[in-house]
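TA notes, week 10

Several of you asked for a full example with nothing omitted. So below is the full record: structure tokens for the whole chain, then the designed sequence directly under it. When grading your own attempts, check the secondary structure regions first.
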């Protein structure tokens, strides 16, 4: 019994020793595992905190920018509300004055016959009519201010940047009828001779003159307000598919970037030449400006120019502009996909232009009268160089409250790149790629003028005439002259009358009749008539 008892003690002691021998390493391993796990968890927590801090900083930055934009919007809305309140007060005062005048007219029976003879009733009626016109004008201004306040309250067009972007444009439908043959059915510029199988006329409709525009109002840089503008339409041609004429291709028109100081501006991008700032008023011809190749220098080309305004009086000043342009010369591109240099670009120098204008106000409308100059070098290989130049004049002058005259004039040489010379800069004595062919710059003169009659704010009538007249001496210099456009065209004339009605500021309807006359050096006169009905909504 005693031996069995001691044997049990010895077995228990051995078991305890073995347990201690194996338990210590296991406990150490478990502890090390716990420590390693704790370190891993601590590292993950630190990374999460770091990411969280970054997100909080980003949110703070976005919140700060949002607060700044909200403050600017509140400031703009407050200003518009003040203007609206002032307009309301003026409107109330005018209404009270109108009521007083009407009561005075109603009580005029007590006035003596002699006073009636000296102050006849038509004078009071004229005064009342003037007040009614002023009340109507103030009501329209009030509506405009309300729309501006509403615009400020709208959500901006979303963009990648934080600055405001505005979408604008016009959805336009044109229905037209032609008599005779023209170069372009929906927006004609030239009248052509009828061929054997050509019809006497045609009828159609198009929406490809619809325009879309984007404006961005950027940050202040070096004390200047930055802004940008992009405009495009669907006048870029037709896809080679069934009924492709109804699906016009998208085309860039203008794309500009501006820096505006108080009296100075820098403009960079593609737009109409700044020495030709006006165009006739027409919604029948937006794909190309009215009188393109008939007296209107218009080509949208890349340019950089500086504007400087010098104040002369309270409401008048002198504008000085100067810059460089892409020296376009009018030739069509050699390839649809690859750009090769034109003759102007082959000269390895830009075109230069400047304009000087006086600006002011007359009859509460803007008035401007300006003159300009243009120069470019063109290189046709083998030292065949041509100097392109132009002198221009432009004006926009109101005549009373209802009428205004606008127009431009130019005289120059090799102006095909700007639409002068009926699209031609030079003529060749033979093939252009023949080294033996001589080249001559085409002299030309042209311009256009328009008379506007606007009896009320919603309705206007326009009558205009334009002409491009290349010099006959240049056209007859070579017996068999050649060029990249028809070398026989001697004069292109265009004239139109139209009426434009705007029942609302964003709705318009127009009707226009246009006459085209194109003459060649052989004395043949071709003519065409174009009638256009337009309906559109602006946004």
């Amino acid at each position: 019994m005693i031996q069995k008892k001691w044997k049990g003690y010895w077995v228990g002691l051995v078991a305890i020793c073995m347990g201690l021998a194996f338990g210590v390493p296991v406990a150490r391993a478990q502890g090390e595992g716990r420590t390693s796990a704790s370190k891993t968890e601590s590292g993950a927590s630190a990374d999460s905190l770091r990411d969280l801090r970054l997100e909080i900083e980003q949110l703070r930055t976005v919140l700060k920018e949002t607060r700044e934009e909200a403050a600017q919007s509140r400031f703009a809305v407050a200003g518009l509300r003040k203007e609206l309140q002032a307009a309301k007060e003026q409107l109330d005062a005018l209404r009270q004055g109108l009521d007083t005048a009407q009561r005075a007219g109603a009580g005029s029976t007590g006035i003596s016959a002699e006073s009636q003879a000296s102050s006849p009733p038509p004078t009071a009626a004229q005064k009342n009519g003037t007040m009614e016109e002023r009340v109507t004008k103030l009501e329209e201004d009030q509506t405009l201010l309300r729309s501006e306040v509403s615009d400020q309250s709208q959500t901006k067009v979303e963009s990648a940047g934080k600055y405001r972007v505005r979408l604008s444009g016009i959805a336009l439908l044109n229905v037209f009828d032609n008599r005779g043959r023209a170069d372009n059915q929906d927006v004609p510029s030239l009248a052509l001779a009828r061929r054997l199988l050509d019809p006497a006329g045609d009828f159609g409709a198009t929406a490809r003159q619809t325009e879309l525009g984007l404006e961005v109002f950027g940050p202040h840089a070096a004390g200047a307000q930055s802004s940008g503008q992009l405009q495009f339409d669907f006048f870029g041609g037709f896809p080679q598919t069934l009924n492709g004429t109804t699906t016009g291709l998208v085309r860039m028109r203008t794309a500009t970037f501006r820096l505006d100081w108080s009296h100075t501006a820098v403009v960079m991008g593609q737009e109409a030449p700044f020495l030709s700032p006006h165009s006739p008023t027409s919604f029948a011809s937006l794909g190309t400006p009215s009188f393109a190749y008939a007296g209107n220098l218009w080509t949208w080309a890349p340019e950089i120019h500086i504007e400087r305004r010098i104040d002369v009086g309270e409401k008048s000043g002198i504008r000085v502009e100067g810059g460089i342009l892409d020296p376009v010369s009018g030739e069509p591109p050699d390839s649809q996909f690859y750009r090769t240099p034109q003759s102007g670009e082959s000269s390895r120098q830009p075109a230069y232009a400047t304009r000087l204008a006086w600006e002011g106000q007359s009859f509460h409308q803007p008035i401007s009268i300006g003159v300009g100059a243009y120069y470019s070098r063109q290189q046709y290989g083998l030292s065949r160089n041509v100097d392109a130049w132009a002198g221009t004049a432009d004006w926009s002058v109101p005549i009373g409250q209802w009428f205004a005259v606008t127009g431009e004039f130019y005289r120059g040489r090799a102006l095909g790149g700007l639409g002068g010379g009926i699209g031609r800069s030079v003529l060749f004595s033979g093939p252009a790629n023949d080294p033996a062919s001589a080249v001559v710059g085409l002299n030309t003169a042209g311009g256009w003028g328009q008379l506007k009659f606007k009896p009320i704010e919603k309705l206007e009538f326009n009558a205009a005439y334009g002409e491009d007249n290349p010099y006959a001496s240049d056209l007859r210099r070579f017996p068999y002259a050649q060029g990249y456009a028809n070398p026989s065209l001697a004069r292109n004339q265009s004239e139109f009358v139209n009426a434009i009605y705007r029942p609302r500021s964003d709705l318009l309807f127009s009707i226009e009749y246009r006459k085209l006359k194109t003459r060649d050096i052989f004395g043949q006169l071709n003519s065409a008539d174009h009638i256009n009905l337009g309906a559109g909504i602006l946004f």
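The helical segments are 2-106, 113-118, 121-153, 343-346, 472-475. Use that as a sanity check on your answer.
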